Amino acid sequence: MKAIRRFSVRPVLPEPLRPLSELARNLRWSWHPETRELFQAVDPEGWSAAAGDPMRLLGSVPAPRLAALADDRRFRRRLAAAADDLQDYLTGRRWYQEQPEGLPAAIAYFSPEFGITAALPQYSGGLGILAGDHLKSASDLGVPLIGVGLLYRHGYFRQSLSREGWQQEHYPLLDPNELPLTMLREPDGSASRISLALPGGRSLRAYIWQARVGRVPLLLLDSDVEENGPGEREVTDRLYGGGGEHRLLQEMLLGIGGVRAVRTYCRLTGHPEPEVFHTNEGHAGFLGLERIRELVATGLDFDAALEHARAGAVFTTHTPVPAGIDRFDRELVARHFGPAGELPGIDVERVLELGLETYPGGEPNLFNMAVMGLRLAQRANGVSTLHGQVSRQMFAGLWPGFDPEEVPIDSVTNGVHAPTWVAPEVLRLGARRVGAGRAEDALAAGGSQRWDALAEIPDADIWELRRTLREQLVEEVRERLRASWRERGAGTAELGWIDGVLDPDVLTIGFARRVPSYKRLTLMLRDRDRLMELLLHPERPVQIVVAGKAHPADDSGKRLVQELVRFADDPRVRRRLVFLPDYGMAMAQRLYPGCDVWLNNPLRPLEACGTSGMKAALNGCLNLSVLDGWWDEWYEPDFGWAIPTADGAAMDEDRRDDLEAAALYDLLERRVAPRFYDRAHGGLPGRWIEMVRRTLTTLGPKVLAGRMVREYVERLYAPAAEAQRALTPAAASELAAWKARVRAGWPGVAVDHVEAVADTALNGTATLGSTVSLRVSVTLGPLDPADVEVQAVAGRVDPTDRLSQTAVFPLKPAGGPALDGRRLYEGPLTLDRTGPFGYTVRILPAHRLLSSGAEMGLVTLPSEATGEAAGVLLR
């Protein structure tokens, strides 16, 4: 029989055990080993059955056991110490509180998914795990962040396999009352709600649930409200579920509803209002429109409100492929923001122009969420140095006239939250060298360039640690594989072979991630005979553990999964290659530490960052990867291997896969496996252990989310807060009026004549160190000299006269306007490098409140008739 209604019955803890409830409801337990050990001591068998979830554990502990613990003085002392430690963590001064004054009072951080812990399954992949690590590291550093997301009643799907190896999706119902969440309530006890207006007089209402991520509140909006219609109740049903209008409503609720939830939270708790709003990927981009609406309601016009909202906004793009960006039909967006929809009083055309692809190469009838994110944020970034370059090229159409290098998209390379991802055994080994407190601080806050204290760990200790972690992974894999085969319909009598799956003394390779085509799950299968030889080598065998989910609507991704599963089912290799379904945080926390090598073979440069290899590295696992994302930035032969790539516009896709797969096999056969099995003194692989040591000492400090969050604070949050404060309503109105005047007058701006006077005759060549005096005649039309900056741009010049490695030299006005209105600008240009050299001049808008000269996307260059020959050959 099925229940017609379900509800949660919460345990009543004895008074001495009440602090357990507070410890369970703050998700710091998910990265604090001492708190997890305390819960395990409550009921070891129950802890295992609850999959390490304190809320589930406390709901299942028998009353006699609780009574016994309440009388156990030793347990009460441990409980009191854990509660005191949490209180110190929540209230003490941390890195942020020790910084100079002027940092933001609060930052709102919006993301469509958050991977905090497996006990709160609101994530699908790297974006959510990154967002969760961002919140946890902000908590460790004391950064006053407020997280904002959606509460998906079915989360992301659970994955299983059919007998034929086809991915199957399951959507278990999540009850918020059984999760580590608290509903936000008004002073009278009623549930706090926010509401959005929909076409046809309908409303989309949502509750606000709060998760406590250490010091950071995470607000999750839930549309399963009784007063909503059936369609509106299902808006937050599934993460990345549905399409078209369903996705648009999710993103309106996240962005617009999210700002309203933040306002409600600050009103009820007294938390400072955010000065900076950070959009993690374009899904939450509508938050900028809600901030504009708030400002228009105070009396600002749209343009002034736009300037004010942009100043305090940060946008992070995570995708290097246009297909990864949400785009909506113009008419659909117009219907939801028209007179009968949201944001009344704001012209729908002004809303549309923020997201439409009205630039060369774009589709003018599509509303692009990333484009809106960039237009609504004064500061933007990619998530690795290479991804920053890719993003500048990808979105260069928004800044016509500027080379991609000058497109104002910066980069902050992602990091991972070490206390979450480092195995307890690794942490204990480090703690023995530097002390538990210093080890915890180093992992959480970072700040060191190197962890040289780890360099003195004996080889035998490192090798023993690596074997222990590998052995734990083997046990985990066998348990999960057995469960998977039972789901696939196998009987116990068929599964005796699983006891021999993997070997704790064999080189173990891990590959786990989402399964879009560009990540190339099946590249390792390109030459199956050669792969089989590697797996079954008599002296140097390898074994591979693979996991990953394809999007439910991606049949091509599901076919890749099936192809790999069918190969792994082959009795000849199934003890050496396994596919584990239902990849998630709980699996990952065992998989990363237990592998010797982490494999990543995406199509370069389509991996924005790829943080799984970072998590593996923090556990002493070596990376074997294409030079993409973070690995392109930090790879060194001392701690890993680079898979050669065959990228290039002319390269056939199949030919490229053949070449790169062959390179992968060569590396495994000739360099990776021989080094692992090269045993010298005492049977230890000395050169391998040295690579592990270098990984921990040199790479470890770089990949920390603590380093990443500090960079966001110093390079993006602090400047955004400063700009927000400078843009008072009066200043915003003045800037908006100035921009309108400059845009209207820009067609009248021209470079009329460029003249170069050298200290020696040029004649096409010059001597290093000589100087060229530039005299540039310009027409400014209706604009004043104070509205512009005239610059010389000089650098290397290629055979097509394109400049690179450029430097900018401002030119100064020389006197007043001539009789014909033209103005003269002058300045020296020092020839400071040898080889082909060239220069040009340009005019840009200039204002003290612009974040960069490229902000407005306006630039005037000389015509071919105006400029001289671009290349000056130096000797």
TrEMBL record:
Its cofactor is pyridoxal 5'-phosphate. It comes from the Bacteria. GO terms for biological process: carbohydrate metabolic process. It holds the Pfam family Phosphorylase. The keyword Iron does not apply. Keywords: Allosteric enzyme, Carbohydrate metabolism, Glycosyltransferase, Pyridoxal phosphate, Transferase. InterPro entries: Agluc_phsphrylas, Glyco_trans_35, Glycogen/Maltodextrin_Phosph, Glycogen_phosphorylase_DUF3417, Pyridoxal_P_attach_site. NCBIfam families: more_P_ylases. Belongs to the glycogen phosphorylase family. It catalyses: [(1->4)-alpha-D-glucosyl](n) + phosphate = [(1->4)-alpha-D-glucosyl](n-1) + alpha-D-glucose 1-phosphate. The modification N6-(pyridoxal phosphate)lysine is found at K615. Residues 13-120 form the DUF3417 domain. It comes from Streptosporangium nondiastaticum. Its EC number is 2.4.1.1. This is glycogen phosphorylase. One of its GO terms (molecular function) is glycogen phosphorylase activity. Phosphorylase is an important allosteric enzyme in carbohydrate metabolism. Enzymes from different sources differ in their regulatory mechanisms and in their natural substrates. However, all known phosphorylases share catalytic and structural properties.
